[in-house]
Design brief:
8-stranded mixed β-sheet, globular
Length: 248
């Protein structure tokens, strides 16, 4: 039986899908909820079908957590990750799910692009156990070129997590010719090594497995000619961070 106040259980939101046995979205085995709606338009996004808000499946927070609890034994050493889309794009629903999960003893993580203003998403950050925070690019103009928005909100969220001691795993997509460049990576690593809250950096190789979704939606995929990173390029990127004692 779910333990929670009725006002949280009855808050509705829209989700795209769920993954009941996720191993790539935070520590341990996790139940991953992919929220519907995102304010960014990342050029390398592999889930453009999650962009539009109000689509997907409408669910109540209580009903969603009721399903999550069916998998408690499998995720007992992991937890629940709210991903997307952008979970903080639905802050009330996100907070409700986090709150009910916490009341039921589940570890929670928010996988966020950092695209929502801190004043809007602060309660969610306070409620979560950790963040998986995307840093699209350290330079604000490069970030805007990649995503349609600069990185001001993401850096404010990171500073807030440092202030309150919230655990953060940074995620950074390596796109040859764009983010996968030695100088950019060195500047990012030097920036991140000053944050005590950053416990890990995940370097995610660019791939085109979601390109078919762009075609299906009739959206031009501008990175179709980009070659996926080589093993040597990935080793170079990893070494930049490990040389600075940053856990990969």
């Amino acid at each position: 039986m779910i333990k929670s106040a009725t006002d949280f259980s009855k808050i509705a939101g829209h989700i795209h899908s769920v993954e009941t046995f996720g191993a790539l979205d935070g520590p341990g085995i996790r139940y991953v909820v992919f929220f519907q709606g995102c304010p960014l338009r990342c050029r390398y996004c592999h889930n453009p079908d999650t962009w539009l808000p109000g689509k997907g499946r409408e669910v109540l927070a209580g009903d969603l957590v009721q399903d999550i609890l069916r998998y408690r034994n499998f995720i007992s050493s992991g937890g629940v990750t709210l991903s997307g889309g952008e979970p903080l794009f639905q802050p009330e629903f996100c907070l409700a799910v986090l709150h009910i999960c916490r009341e039921n003893g589940l570890h929670t993580a928010i996988d966020t692009s950092g695209s929502i203003a801190l004043e809007e998403c602060r309660p969610c950050i306070d409620e979560a156990d950790m963040l998986l925070l995307d840093i699209k690019a350290l330079d604000p103009l490069e970030c805007k070129s990649l995503t349609g928005k600069d990185n001001r909100c993401a850096l404010e969220i990171l500073d807030y997590c440092e202030q309150i001691g919230r655990t953060v795993w940074i995620r950074h997509v390596l796109v040859p010719g764009l983010t996968l460049e030695r100088g950019r990576l060195e500047r990012l690593a030097d920036f991140l090594k000053e944050y005590r809250c950053v416990k890990r950096v995940e370097l995610l190789p660019f791939h085109k497995m979601g390109a078919y979704k762009w075609d299906a939606l009739g959206i031009p995929f501008t990175l179709s000619e980009v070659v996926e990173p080589s093993a040597e390029e990935l080793q170079m990127a990893t070494k930049i961070f490990t040389d600075r004692n940053i856990l990969i």
